[in-house]
Amino acid sequence: MFEEFHFTMATHNYKVFSCFNRKFTVTEPEPPPDVQKAFSEFSEGASSMSADQLLQFLAEHQGEVNCTVSDSEQILQQSRKEDGETGFDLHYFFHFLQDSDLNVPLKSQVHHDMNAPMSHYFIYTGHNSYLTGNQLSSDCSDVPIIKALQRGVRVIELDLWPNSDKDDIDVVHGRTLTTPVSLLQCLKSIKEYAFVKSQYPLVITLEDHLTPDLQAKVAKMATQVFGELLYYPQTDSLMEFPSPESLKGRILISTKPPKEFLESSEKESADEVSSLRENANEQRTDNEVSILTKSAPEYKRLITIHAGKPKGEIQDELKAAGKVRRLSLSEQALEKASESYGADIVRFTHNNILRVYPKGTRLTSSNYKPHIGWTYGAQMVAFNMQGHGKSLWYMQGMFRSNGGCGYVKKPDFLIQKGPHDEVFDPKIALPVKKTLKVKVYLGKGWSSDFSPSDFDSYSPPDFYVKVCIVGVPADMIKKKTSVISNNWFPVWNEEFDFPLTVPELALLRVEVREEDKHQKDDFGGQTCLPVSELKSGFRSVPLYDEKGDKYKSVKLLMRFQFR
Question: What are the Basic and acidic residues biased-composition ranges (predicted)?
């Protein structure tokens, strides 16, 4: 017989109609039958497990084939350090499985090949990185830039405009009511926080609305602030992008060369604030045109990734050969182009960089579904990082891959051509490659991170879990558990199968909700996990709030298996 573990944590009182008290005892559940069975099997029926037996469990059940006896001994010591016991019994085994520091669901180290050209990676990319809120009237600041860098974002976008005296540079969303922040302040913060989360290269994309003298000032400012961190390209234009490994600890500039200023520099801003511009009806004078056609050689010299927007037909831009470059398309333009030129887009992204940015009507800083870019090989799927919502959860989930370094190696099918020059087509339904089996056992931590009445004023919460796959259209599946009523420590023990045709691009979305029969169900935590990075076996899965910040205690015990 297995021991039963019921740990009484607290008693919560709920007032009903101001005169009656309802008492609910908060208790932790016992280990699920699957956990008890695994403990019995690997401990060979004994009451405690040795370091060698734990190592066998880690290798055979959890797929941790690189673990050593030293690792298992360390787990034993950390799991029982609080009370000094020497035996690793079912109690400690169960608590080890629920420890989200010791029993993580994802690979925590950089493990992708980082020596390929930058065009072979998805890159964690921000849009209008300086905005604190909406696109029309929020403050501009270096604070959201710092937050993005702390999360591992590797592409920061700055919009550069002359200040009111025309003698310095502001970072501001032009022709809106947003308040500016100085470029110098942004550059200093970027230098300080560029590599706190990841050592791999940081790209600064500049949306440039400057005269040549101010462009020269930008070049001087960037050179002085960044010093040796700033990477200078050896040639005017590259035939192949450098690798992330070769550029560790370096900062790169990506923008349009000065000579292209008049042709394309305002296209994206026009997309974003077209309604304001129609009212403003601003036109450049011949004198302004004459001034702006002069180039700033110091500025041009800093540009590693040459950028541009389509000047003519999109298919011509996609098929242009020669020097590598970055092309920017709005989410709408990409979706439209993919209808007729999907294969050309994928081929373009084999060697060149495609940046996708939000459509201009997203004035509240909402985001789009990132897979519209990723499935066509777009490396820089630019997001408003200051917002929140499911799309941003997907973005955060994708970049939990590869140790959270901000660079995720694209699948081979998005880099290579077939024998007949064919490329990946996300619209074609493919056969199932593998099936992911997900079992949701139990959850804990809400009684620590929330107050007793946060979900329901009269009783403990009624939790359920939504489990979904986000990826190519053929793989999109939504499932959910039953509702567990009046319990801070819900136990579900429910399993779901997810057949996957393109597991390389699939994300597992997990969201806990609290059922409310009278209004919208309350939010209880979420996470998004890249399927290709999932570790098999029992895993402690920490949950995050709606902005993507991790809760201190809230987590689920789950099991992942591939068939």
Answer: 259-270
